[in-house]
Amino acid sequence: MKRMSFFLVVIMILFHILVFSVIAQTTSVNQPQTTASSGQQVQYILSIPAIFTFFILMLGPIKVLVPFVKMTRDTDTRFRRKLALIATLISTIGCLVAAFMGQRILKSWHISIPAIMLAGGIILFLVALQMIMQMYSSPHRDETTPSTPTLAMAVSPLSFPTIVTPYGIAILIILMATAQDAVRQVEIIGVLLATMVLNLLTMLFAHRILKVIGVITLQILGSVLGVLQVALGIEMIIQTLIKMGLMVTVS
What residues does each domain of the chain span? Predict the structure, then answer.
């Protein structure tokens, strides 16, 4: 048991280091990634580390841990495993359908890339700001009688909206719509699948992880990531306004 606890602590520490190192290395929208494709230089709006950061913040395992523990508090390991697998499958399929359908609809409506990026920045900023403000609001008492846990929870509320958030879907659609070739879309889907694998592992070990790191640690991490979300949203808005010629850079 002690070895297992030590192993989980090491895993969570490495995961936190990975998240913050990716955030620190994120080039964001002011330093696009450039790669060679068919003899031409293709300039991408976001780098792969930046996309991974967005998915970790909006579709990642940090916000899934506590809700999953609450949903499966009085259940056995077999039920938790089934629930985690079904929720991961549904979430992945939902994201893929939304990604391909959403980006096709946006392109068919002839919406410009700056307009899409500006919309994404505003959505990200408002949602992240709301999450931060909720930390200072008075706690809400839920006086309703908890229902018996069933596998139907894999659809709602676990997959939607706990794992697959509305703003996460919005960012995913924006990334797919602004991808300039099929290779980039494959890379985005690959990062999405990696994020879903992290979600699955987090749910499978959720109760053990929460016992080791505690709720306070998650709250602190959530506060830090919430502030980073606000900053990323503002950065997207500013850089889009600069590209549209509505704002000038100040050196």
Answer: 62-136+150-244
